[in-house]
Amino acid sequence: MSSVRIECVAKEGCRIGESPVWDEKEGELLFVDITGRKVCRWSPLTRQTQAIAVDAPVSSVALRQSGDYVITLGTRFAALKWKEELVTTINQVDKDKVNTRFNDGKVDPAGRYFAGTMAEEIRPAVLERRQGSLYTLFPDLSVVKHFDQVDISNGLDWSLDHRTFFYIDSLSYSVDAFDYDLQTGKIGNRRSIYKLEKEESIPDGMCIDTEGKLWVACYDGGRVIRLDPETDNRTGGERSSTISICRLNTLFRVDLERADISEISLKVLFWGAEMTNFCPDDLKRNVDRGKFSYSLQILTMSSSIKIESVVKEKNRMGECPVWEERENALVYVDINSQKVCRWSPVTNEVQSVSVDARVGSVALRQCGGYVIALGTRFAFLDWDTEAVTTILELEQDKPNNRFNDGKVDPKGRFFAGTMAEETAPGVRARRQGALYTLFPDHSVIKQLDQLDISNGLDWSLDHRTFFHIDSLSYAVHAFSYDVHTGKIGTLDFEFGDK
Q: With a cut of 50, which residues of the chain have pLDDT below it?
């Protein structure tokens, strides 16, 4: 088990803080204080929280396409206009039950708001049984009930292909799956995919990660478990995940960097209350935009990692690993040895093609073969014939430059940057590099210049942000990105320290 460092980022004293949702338009984090009867909005820039008081327990909040919010308020779906502090009832449910309220809620991929009810608790997890139901608010403001006889309607999310709906009724100690029709919003064929033992504590909030695995918070159990819905087992895996914790009286964030971890134990004492519940949420889908992560600072959790050498080939400077599914091989470059390499996990052997200059990066072509950043050239490489064909030579006025790291954007454009070679270890001419893009029509544009060492680059999951590292700046930079044109825009933010 690994240690976890936790930072408090919002010192607002919530009685039951839940439902964190990133509002990209406002650049702020929304959440609710259920029994405090408040909808809150926290700014990572000012580190201040604004709140709007409402007239009943408010259990979840969602964004409206037209702006402002929808909330689950008591047993009502309601619209909330933030600036006016105006709440307008859309529809009321459970009209025959005076002691129920909404609990967890979330918006499906087509914009429908799913939320379920529960009886008010006498004390935590003690309540009148089978009083809740699961409802959906449709964009036309109609509401349907999917089923009733629910104890505590809680965590919910959808599979990455939108064909399965996952749901937790907490006191059933089960994570359930339904067939899901994205076109109609209807669910069916309920089955349990994971059953918790009573000693594992009560399943609460839930979200899905980019690998299709489910993260389930265990109320009063001090942990989050990660489940594989395909195998019905807990699972680990190599990935990083950022999860918000929002429970009882404060807002926390934890960064998890793990190699093989299926359960994280956590108990934190704060203001005399035991913090024992994670609330995973939709923030995971937007945190890669970086504005939230940057303002909170980067947190890390150390864990032991087993590393195995699979390529015994000695490289002078091995870089740019790219998996080629067509050949079932790992392609990479040895910059200083002037080689493009291909390793087969089947034969455990490496083949290589020698080239006439230092090769900074390699990318796959849709038609087969590769594009490489070679010296200061973009070039095609035909693996079978070992032929290298120059596409365009750049920076002919800088004989001491070469390409470094490169990567293909979601539309097939090859981004790669240059740097000056060292004249002695650690010594090089400064600000000689630039960042270029090779387009599918073989045209090239310069995106940035005055770089020292153009290095790591990638795009956010929604393709709206481009991340780039100029190594000697000791910073990670983020730019607005137009995936339709391939152009990067304004520098949104940077983070890092020397």
A: 1-2, 236-303, 497-498
Cα distance between the two ends of the chain: 31
Residues 6+ positions from 21 with CB-CB distance below 8 Å: 29, 30, 31, 61, 62, 63, 281, 282, 283
In whole angstroms, give the CA distance from residue 308 to residue 341. Answer: 19
Q: How many CB atoms neighbour CB 141 within 10 A?
A: 11
Sequence-distant (≥ 6) Cβ neighbours of residue 397 within 8 angstroms: none
In 196-299 the beta strands, taken as DSSP E runs, fall at 202-208, 214-219, 223-228, 233-234, 239-247, 250-258, 263-265, 268-270, 273-275
Alpha helices in 56-210 (DSSP H): none
Distance CA 69, CA 87 (A): 10
With tokens 């990479």, the residue in question is: 332
Q: Please state whether beta strands 387-393 and 401-408 pair in parallel, antiparallel, or not at all (unpaired).
A: unpaired
pLDDT score at 498: 45
CA 400 to chain CA centroid, nearest Å: 39
Residue 62's contacts (CB-CB under 8 Å, 6 or more residues apart) are: 21, 69, 70, 71, 105, 106, 107, 113
Residue type, 203: P
Positions marked active-site: 204
Q: State the pLDDT at residue 10.
A: 75
In Å, how far from its chain's centre is CA 380?
34
pLDDT of residue 5: 62
Asked if residues 51 and 34 have their Cβ atoms less than 8 Å apart, the reply is no
pLDDT at 328: 86
Strands (E), 212-368: 214-219, 223-228, 233-234, 239-247, 250-258, 263-265, 268-270, 273-275, 318-324, 329-334, 339-344, 349-354, 359-364
Q: What pTM, to 2 d.p., does this model score?
A: 0.52
Cα 30 from chain centroid? 17
